[in-house]
Amino acid sequence: MKSVTKAYRPISWPTKGAGGDTGSWRVRRPVVNTQICNKCQICWVFCPEAVIDRNEITIDYRYCKGCGVCATECPTGAISMEKEE
Amino acid sequence: MTTSIKQLPDIEQVLSGNGACGGCPATMALRIVGKALGPNAIMLLTPSCSVASMGMTPRLGYNWPCINICFATAGSSASGITHALEIMQEKGRLQGELPTVFTWVGDGGTYDIGFQALSAAAERNDNMIFFCYNNEAYSNTGVQRSGATPRGSYTTTTPSGKRQQKKNMALLMLEHNIPYVATATVAYPGDLYDKVAKAKSISGMKYIEILAPCYLGWQFDMPETVQMSRMAVRSGAWLLWEAENGKISFNKPSASIINGKKDAAPVDEYLMKQGRFNRLLKGPDAAQRIAEIQGDIDREIAFMRERAQITI
User: Which residues of chain B make contact with A63, given a CB cutoff of 8 A?
Assistant: First the structure.
């Protein structure tokens, strides 16, 4: 970062949470049932927000917007959308 | 052989907590594109939803150097950057592999406003990848009609349904005699990954169009984004193909529709799930409207089947 001269320095830098803590947009929260989950990683590939951990299948609720694509695409029905409290 | 989901690399170029809507197909597609392109790339964006999704200054939701440019200049700006990089390498000011220059432009910036710059860049055969994420309307400004909007679709500027057919933009780009043209969609991530990886390895102008079903513009439920994309392919409304040096080959499952092994699903189910068609299919002329849309799709399939025979 320091090697860039001031005249060419960009205004923005890549950071998580560029739109704020987007988890607050959520109405329903996805919950993974680890007993049914077969770790096929389909939820991970379709998550538009990249909040699902590929190996552990855990969800980062700080940024998850609760779109429900993971729950719809899950072939075993291991992800359910539960009401946000 | 298509890359399976487990073979996709770990690298994430779209960062969590960006400003896109929940269930956005554009960030969904851009994640897969990022896995194929890697970090050594320069991204150009014209005004579109993806610019709004970048988030608020001084933060950036994409892990690439991003340049926001005028609406009509996606092709010409990318050309300029490519030439500058080549000259910098010649003069020894840039070491190592050249970064991939790519544009991430919506259908308005490709089909309508950005077409002349794109066409000129294709004619010059400049080394870049032009991505069009096609949500079939100007979704960022509140869903207005574009050249990509299909016949019979409701938008705010066509309240009684669009009366004209959409353009076949990928075919138009093929007729510019560029080395690589492909169409993809979010429901088939392995297919999309392979196409981007192939485009990265080819030098010259590459054009990849990705169908991105926008739930706000198409008026369906938010979790059904991927299903809608899959239904578009199964009904034949969107065909998956790629053309290397002008030779068209179809990808699964469009290949089985084209060579007649499997019939395309009737378009009714696909239309009825979307509010933009559904709201106009309640009157007495519904059957005629559906027949018109089905006619467009059948004609497109028949045309592409014959076009693929021409390999000269």
Answer: 16-17
Query: Rounded to an integer, what is the distance from CA B30 to the centroid of its chain?
Result: 11
List, in order of start, the domains of chain B with CATH numbers.
5-307 (3.40.50.970)
Whether domain A30-85 has CATH 2.160.10.10: no
pLDDT in tens, chain B (312 residues): 788 889 999 999 999 999 999 889 999 999 999 999 999 999 999 999 999 888 888 889 999 999 999 999 999 999 999 999 999 999 999 888 999 999 999 999 999 999 999 999 999 999 999 999 999 999 999 899 999 999 989 999 999 889 999 999 999 999 999 999 999 999 999 999 999 999 999 999 999 999 999 999 999 999 999 999 999 999 999 999 999 998 999 998 899 999 888 888 889 899 999 999 888 888 888 889 899 999 999 999 999 999 999 886
Taking residue B208's Cβ as centre, other Cβ atoms within 10 Å add up to 25
Residue B201: Cβ-neighbour burial (10 angstroms; 0-12, 13-18, 19+):
exposed
- Write out chain B residues lying below 8 Å of A10, CB-based: 65
Q: Do A41 and B224 lie within an 8 Å CB cutoff?
A: no
Note the ipTM here. Answer: 0.89
The full set of domain ranges for chain A reads 30-85
Interface test with A, best of B11, B12, B16 (most A CBs within 10 A): B16
To the nearest whole Å, the CA of B31 is away from the closest chain A CA by 7
